[in-house]
Design goal:
The chain is built from eleven helices and no strands. The protein is an all-alpha fold. The protein has one domain.
Length: 282
């Protein structure tokens, strides 16, 4: 039970049972993330820290696992026609720019305060989605918040500027706290751009992949990656994400909205925990 990966010839200080736990959890998180369109790195990161991985290494490993998961899920969503490439461009490019700038401004405000604010916003949206899903009676597609027929096509023609502003703001905040923040972008796509929930899942996941790769480059350049764990968790996340994304096309809008709500609540709890860990009170 105390055998380490290093003793097996793999460059990692973690124990074998840690690796098994991380791989299995990565599969499960990948399925859930692929289904709702989130990389869910904010859930995976606490597990990495729980097994004793140093924070910088955990962050660097986690962000690429998230990217691999998002990449696999995105491919499935693209094949299923559940990605709006116009939104990926108008929101994704400003998000990358914002994340780059936000990384330089990370010391301007306490990370614990920023994370706490994000946690509250995500929790609020999660609870709201859950309540609305309970009230929604139909099993049709579209967006239950705006009726059975989602006005996403018309909305995108009118609101490319809004998508860009949302992407920039979320990128700035994500760069400051070191997270992709798909959990903030997802509610914005649902509520502000009024997109079909299935298209939201695919579009959000593809943007998350681009952001994740960008963030990982900085960690890799500083050697903050546990590659044996990355391979095991990444493989598990990719398998899980592909299966979860496949389920998205089969689910009703009500089921998808309800699941999104609960996942956002769990993410909010994880972010709140991280905010506490980074605060002066921890």
């Amino acid at each position: 039970m105390n055998l380490t990966l290093d003793e097996l010839g793999l460059a990692s200080d973690l124990r074998v049972w840690h690796a098994v736990l991380l791989t299995l959890s990565s599969v499960a998180i990948g399925v859930l993330g692929g289904f709702v369109g989130l990389a869910l790195g904010s859930i995976r990161l606490p597990i990495l820290l729980f097994v004793g991985m140093p924070v910088p290494t955990a962050a660097g490993t986690n962000i690429l696992v998230s990217s691999l998961s998002a990449m696999t899920g995105s491919i499935r969503h693209v094949r299923g026609g559940r990605v709006d490439f116009k939104v990926v461009l108008t929101m994704g490019v400003p998000s990358v720019a914002g994340a780059f700038i936000g990384g330089f401004w990370s010391g301007a405000a306490p990370e614990s305060l920023l994370l706490a604010i994000v946690a509250v916003l995500v929790a609020w949206q999660g609870v709201e989605f859950t309540i609305m899903a309970r009230k929604h009676k139909g099993d049709v597609g579209g967006n239950p918040l705006f009726g059975s027929q989602s006005p996403e096509s018309e909305s995108q023609e009118r609101r490319p500027g809004l998508a860009a502003v949302i992407g920039l703001v979320i990128g700035l905040l994500g760069g400051a706290v070191g997270l992709i923040l798909g959990s903030i972008r997802l509610p914005a796509l649902v509520r502000m751009l009024k997109m079909d929930l299935r298209v939201v899942a695919g579009t959000n996941m593809l943007i998350g992949f681009v952001l994740g790769i960008t963030g990982w480059i900085a960690h890799a350049s500083r050697g903050e990656v546990d590659y044996p764990i990355l391979v095991m968790m990444g493989a598990g996340a990719m398998v899980g994400s592909q299966y979860g994304a496949k389920l998205t096309g089969r689910a009703s809008a009500r089921t998808l909205l309800f699941t999104m709500g609960w996942v956002l609540v769990v993410v909010a709890v994880a972010m709140g925990w991280q905010a506490f860990r980074r605060s002066s009170f921890a």
